[in-house]
């Protein structure tokens, strides 16, 4: 009978249990305390799951009572305000959710955490034939640090700017998982630099560099590899940017503008896609501890690839699939409130999955990384 059910899920005749809120969702959260970080995390991650399920409903032609997505937002008193469609393959990649019970003034109660007016959520890669090709091309853009040139991202940032223009940045949250976390992270950086920092929830965001944290077991060796990398990066940055003092000042200012923005970062040590964030922040702290803070101050805001490909400046090439002058890598983050899942994950699928973040049995380690300049 189980094999029969699996076949029916594959053929789209029935939904996967992971898409059904009453089976896989946090049904114990009947009342939301917006001051509780677990509650906020659960809401944000479930709204991202809603986007995945919207796209699966579309792919499987599940409509009416067979559709599953609405349960993921209705349970938390949200409505679907807008569905975000990728013009390349007509897939649903994101959604704008509106909180129904919103009747607060954001300036009246500074001690209480206010619910969002809008949550803009983005899904990650779906390895099904309707969406796989486009999603994998965008994954490649994440690795090459040119996601900002994609039509999906350009559309996403327009939607975010419209929401902020309507209700103000204090009332808008961003949330995303995997590829969707990359979209949310890049959008969050742009909005912050423009003076509109947004509360942002990033689940298993991709780190576009070698996952030393996962590949190297010895802590001493990890530090040695990263220390050498920092020295090389700092040296190249001084050599490249020393020729252009004006650009250097602009880039430093751009990085510092991000320092006060503290997105919520959710990573699993067993997930090679995001685990390097753990080492990235740990290494930065270690460098300051051993008195190499000046080297790290330069290294932490640069990537070797962007330095060698033109010092990280933006240029033309918009007509190509990826512009020649890459932007800074996504993972260059001054500050983050990082949640690390310390529970053992049996496989990659579970380690990279979204469901772990609302699991009531979740074991987490919480670290605030604030950039001090």
UniProtKB/TrEMBL annotation:
InterPro entries linked: AB_hydrolase_fold, Fungal_lipase-type
Residue ranges of domain Fungal lipase-type in the record: 158-197
Example of a GO biological process term: lipid metabolic process
Any one GO MF annotation of this record: hydrolase activity
Keyword check for ATP-binding: no
Protein transport keyword on record: no
Keywords: Hydrolase
PANTHER family, per database record: ALPHA/BETA-HYDROLASES SUPERFAMILY PROTEIN, ALPHA_BETA-HYDROLASES SUPERFAMILY PROTEIN
Protein name: Fungal lipase-type domain-containing protein
Matches recorded under Pfam families: Lipase_3
């Amino acid at each position: 009978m189980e094999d029969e059910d699996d076949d029916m899920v594959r053929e789209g005749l029935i939904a996967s249990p992971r898409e059904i809120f009453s089976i896989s969702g946090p049904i114990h959260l009947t009342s939301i305390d917006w001051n509780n970080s677990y509650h906020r995390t659960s809401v944000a991650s479930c709204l991202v799951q809603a986007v995945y399920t919207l796209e699966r409903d579309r792919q499987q032609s599940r409509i009416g009572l067979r559709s599953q997505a609405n349960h993921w937002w209705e349970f938390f008193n949200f409505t679907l305000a807008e569905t975000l469609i990728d013009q390349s393959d007509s897939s649903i990649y994101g959604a704008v959710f509106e909180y129904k019970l919103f009747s607060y003034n954001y300036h009246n109660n500074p001690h209480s955490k206010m619910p969002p007016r809008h949550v803009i959520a983005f899904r990650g890669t779906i390895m099904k034939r309707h969406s796989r090709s486009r999603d994998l091309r965008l994954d490649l853009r994440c690795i090459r640090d040119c996601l900002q040139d994609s039509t999906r991202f350009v559309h996403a940032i327009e939607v975010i700017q419209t929401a902020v223009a309507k209700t103000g940045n204090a009332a808008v949250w961003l949330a995303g998982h995997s590829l969707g976390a990359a979209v949310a992270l890049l959008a969050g950086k742009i909005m912050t630099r423009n003076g509109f920092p947004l509360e942002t929830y990033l689940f298993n965001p991709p780190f576009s560099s070698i996952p030393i944290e996962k590949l190297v077991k010895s802590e001493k060796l990890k530090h040695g590899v990263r220390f050498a990398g920092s020295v090389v990066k700092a040296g190249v940055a001084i050599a490249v940017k020393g020729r252009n003092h004006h650009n250097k000042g602009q880039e430093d200012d751009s990085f510092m503008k991000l320092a006060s923005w503290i997105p919520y970062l959710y990573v699993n040590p067993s997930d090679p896609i995001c685990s390097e964030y753990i080492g990235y922040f740990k290494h930065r702290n270690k460098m300051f501890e051993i008195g190499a803070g000046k080297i790290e101050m330069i290294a932490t805001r640069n990537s070797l690839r962007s330095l060698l490909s033109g010092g990280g400046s933006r240029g033309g090439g918009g007509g190509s699939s990826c512009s020649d002058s890459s932007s800074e890598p996504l993972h260059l983050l001054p500050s983050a409130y990082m949640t690390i899942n310390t529970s053992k994950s049996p496989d990659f699928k579970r380690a990279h999955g979204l469901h772990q973040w609302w699991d009531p049995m979740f074991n987490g380690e919480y670290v605030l990384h604030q950039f001090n300049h």
